[in-house]
Amino acid sequence: MLEKVKVTTKEIDELVAIIKEVWPEAFVPIIGQEQVDYMLATYQSKEQIEKEIAEGVQYFLLKKQGQTVGYTAYEIIDSKIYLSKLYLLHQVRGQGLTTAIFHWYEQLAKEQGITEIYLRVNQGNTQAIAVYKHQGFELVGELVSDIGQGFQMVDYKMKKILA
């Protein structure tokens, strides 16, 4: 059973701790340690997360048997769910948790009359791309963003239309 705990100011330190654990294992092989360090400091710092929450981004800790095993975040933009974050520790991947998370997002969308979920994924993250395709997402475009310090995010945009 996967528990989703909404992050408030009281859970931010726990969220930052799981981010610092999961991001290097997910991204160092794809974009390198230097860019990971920059992105963590710039986009996943405690201050940035507090700002995003204040602006309406919903963060959730993902827990299995009381242990934090990942996190997810979303916001509603133009009547669509933008799934901005979904990360699981490597030791819990392949246990059906991603499917449970996507079922939760689809239920959330239906409850709010939303018919589309979209996300960005690094073009080098072939494992995540395969998972998203398996969950019914399709590639709909490429996005290249300069993020400072000479770094770029080179992503695919993927979406899923809900029936």
TrEMBL record:
Keyword annotations from UniProtKB, A to Z: Acyltransferase, Transferase
Gene3D superfamilies, A to Z: 3.40.630.30
The keyword ATP-binding appears for this protein: no
All copies of domain N-acetyltransferase, residue ranges: 2-163
Gene Ontology molecular function, alphabetical: acyltransferase activity, transferring groups other than amino-acyl groups
Cleaved signal peptide residues: none
UniProt cross-references to SUPFAM superfamilies, sorted A to Z: Acyl-CoA N-acyltransferases (Nat)
UniProt superkingdom: Bacteria
One Pfam family cited in the UniProt record for this chain: Acetyltransf_1
PANTHER family the UniProt entry points to: N-ALPHA-ACETYLTRANSFERASE, N-ALPHA-ACETYLTRANSFERASE 50
Protein name: Acetyltransferase
